[in-house]
Amino acid sequence: MRLATALALLCCSNLLYAQQSTRITGQLMEKGLDASISNAIIAIENTSQEFVTDNEGKFEITLTETGGQMLRISALDFISKRFSVYLEGNPIDLGIIYLERDIAHEQTDNLISLTDGDLSDDFESVSSSMGLLQSTRDIFLNRAAFDFGQAFFKIRGYDSRNGQVLMNGIPMNKFFDGRPQWNNWGGLNDVVRNQEFTNSLTLNPYTFGGILGNTNINTRPSGFRPGLRLSSSFSNRTYRGRLMATYNSGEKPSGMAYSVSASRRWAKEGYVEGTLYDAYSFFGAVEYQFNPQNSITFTLILARNRRGRSSALTEEVFDLMGGQYNPYWGEQDGKIRNSREREIFEPLFLFNYALNKKKFNWNVGVAYQTGINSRSRLGYYNAPNPDPTYYRYLPSYHINSSIGADFINANLAKEAFLENPQLDWKQLYEANTNNNDKAAYLLYDDVAQNTTISGATNFNYTLNDFIKLGFGGNYKTTASENYAMILDLLAASYHEDMDWTPFPIL
Question: With a threshold of 0.90, does the pTM exceed it?
Answer without folding.
Answer: no
